[in-house]
TrEMBL record:
<dbReference type="InterPro" id="IPR023214">
    <property type="entry name" value="HAD_sf"/>
</dbReference>
<comment type="pathway">
    <text>Amino-acid biosynthesis; L-histidine biosynthesis; L-histidine from 5-phospho-alpha-D-ribose 1-diphosphate: step 8/9.</text>
</comment>
<keyword id="KW-0479">Metal-binding</keyword>
<comment type="similarity">
    <text>Belongs to the HAD-like hydrolase superfamily. SerB family.</text>
</comment>
<protein>
    <recommendedName>
        <fullName>Histidinol-phosphatase</fullName>
        <ecNumber>3.1.3.15</ecNumber>
    </recommendedName>
</protein>
<dbReference type="InterPro" id="IPR036412">
    <property type="entry name" value="HAD-like_sf"/>
</dbReference>
<comment type="function">
    <text>Catalyzes the dephosphorylation of histidinol-phosphate to histidinol, the direct precursor of histidine.</text>
</comment>
<keyword id="KW-0460">Magnesium</keyword>
<dbReference type="InterPro" id="IPR050582">
    <property type="entry name" value="HAD-like_SerB"/>
</dbReference>
<dbReference type="Pfam" id="PF12710">
    <property type="entry name" value="HAD"/>
</dbReference>
<dbReference type="GO" id="GO:0004401">
    <property type="term" value="F:histidinol-phosphatase activity"/>
</dbReference>
<dbReference type="InterPro" id="IPR006385">
    <property type="entry name" value="HAD_hydro_SerB1"/>
</dbReference>
<keyword id="KW-0378">Hydrolase</keyword>
<dbReference type="GO" id="GO:0046872">
    <property type="term" value="F:metal ion binding"/>
</dbReference>
Amino acid sequence: MTSRRLALFDLDHTLLPLDSDYQWADYLARTGRAGDPEQARRQNDDLMDRYNRGELTAEQAAEFMLGLLAAHSPFDLADWHEEFMREVIRPSITDDARALVQSHLDAGDLCAIVTATNSFVTAPIARAFGVPHLVATDAEYLRGRYTGRILGTPSFKEGKVVRVNDWLSNMGLALTDFPESFFYSDSVNDVPLLEKVTRPIAANPSPTLRTIAQDRGWQVIDLFDHMEDSKS
């Protein structure tokens, strides 16, 4: 029997008080695994600033972020990601964020994390939250290596709507099949998908999204005190 409710969650600054993409690149830089560490940090900061202004394209992000994957073997990447989860991600998962996700899982809702960050970085994080489905930007993988290119439609801005519709369609479903559909997000970049659900919820919203939510009467929640990613 299909759930009558759909619950979608953005990840970075929504369920996590940080940006996992930014932190992964920072982790590689500070551990000497990102070429020139200072140059990598500068690029990382620039991408974050442009993302926060709503001026970043998926292709611009991929050139740097997916390039970090292409530079290393999958064996090494997997090993480093385990350390990244232990040192950076798991300590940052709050009880309130876990409780929010668990409330939807306990209700029998169909749940998915929908994030622009690539699936290599985010699949273990989705598992840590117990969320069974992940809609993320996919990195192309050929002949045992990442290529540094995006595979298919990136899960970003309007692309999130496309990817969610494709994911549901593969299960013989559509957004309109759910009398109630939730999407939690902090970012103005996610307005296209927020507009498609019946229950748009601005979670720890950026100032711009908070204003939009207040103007449109969307629910606003704050799961944790706003914490800036470390850019030192």
